[in-house]
Amino acid sequence: MTIKITADLHVHTTYSKDSMITPKELLYYAKKRGLNACAVTDHNTLEGAYKIAKKTDFLIIPGMEISSADGHIVALNIKEPIPRDLGTVETIERIHKAGGVAIACHPYVYFKGCLRENVCSEFDAIEVINARAFPFKLSVKKAQEAAECYKLSRVAGTDAHYGPQIGYGYTEIEAKSATVDAIADAIVAGHCSPHGQSVPIFLNIEQQIARMKRMVKISVT
C-alpha cells in the first residue's frame, strides 16, 4: 500500500537572496495549490529548509540547489550542505554520501546555470518540468529525451521565487509513507510522475514589480 504525495520539488525562500517567499507564504501557497509536501531548495544553503520543517506539521523536504562548476543541481533529503563549485560527478557523489537524491534541474534552459551536456546516468532524477523554464516546451522536450536516454526518474518543480508561483510544477509520488525518506526512496525507484505548466507571464511580471518595490524600500531605509 502506498500514499500519494503531491509536491513541488523546487521552491526558494527568503534564505535565497533572489527569492521573496517567506516561510509563511510558502505554507500558504503550497496548501492553496493543493500540495501536501514541498521541497525547500535554497541556493547553496540548508538553513531555511530545516528551520521551516521544525516549525510546521506540513511536510517539508529539505534540500538545496547547488551551484556546481558545471551547472545547478538539486539535492533532496541531505543532512549536511554540499560544497559549491565542484564538478558534476563529484557533486553527485557528495550528495549520495550525504544520503540524498541528486536531481539535474532545468538542464536545458536559457539564462540559468544549466547542465546541458553534463547530464549523466549518475543522477537519480531529472527535472523534466521546470515551470519557470525558458523556452518552456523545448526544455521539457529535451529533458524528456535525456531522461529516456539515461533511464532517470522524472520529476517537476516550479523553481518558485514568488509565492503565487508555487505549485505550477509538481510531482506526484507513490511513497510507502508520508516521510522524507520514503519520498526520496520513491523518487530514486521511479515511483513518481511530473506534472505542470509554465508559470503565467503576469505572475512573472508581478514578481519583478514586487522585487523592484523591495529594492526601493531597502534603498530608502
What are the main properties of this structure?
nine-stranded mixed β-sheet, alpha/beta, 221 residues
- Beta percentage is 25-35%
Largest sheet: 9 strands, mixed
Instruction: Assign the structural class, choosing from mainly alpha, mainly beta, alpha/beta, alpha+beta, or little secondary structure.
Output: alpha/beta
* Extended strand count: 9
Q: Report the C-alpha radius of gyration, rounded.
A: 16 Å
Distance between the termini: 55 Å
Principal-axes shape call = globular
Trace the largest sheet across and list its strands: 7-6-5-4-3-2-1-8-9
Average pLDDT rating: 95
Q: Give, in order, the helices and strands.
A: EHEHEEHEEHEEHEH
Helix content: 25-40%
Low-confidence stretches: none
Number of helices: 6
Describe this structure in words.
The chain is α/β, with parallel strands linked by helices. It contains 6 helices and 9 strands. It has a 9-stranded mixed β-sheet with strand order 7-6-5-4-3-2-1-8-9, with helices on both faces. The longest helix has 20 residues. It is globular, with a radius of gyration of 16 Å. The mean pLDDT is 95.
